[in-house]
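Below is just one:
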Amino acid sequence: MAHPKHKVSSTRRDKRRTHYKAEVPTVSTCSNCGAAVLYHRVCPECGYYRGRIAIEKKAE
């Protein structure tokens, strides 16, 4: 295993970590019911995905 010969400075450590950041998820609207839906996922309100029914939702 490799052993560091010198301490890594805080500046060097922080420069390496600059790309580790949280991103806001992309949200679109459902083409069937208009609810907010994450990309590439079935609509939680109506069960449609890309214009077709993917899962059956129970009627309330």
Summary: The CA atoms of residues 16 and 22 lie 16 Å apart. The mean pLDDT is 91.
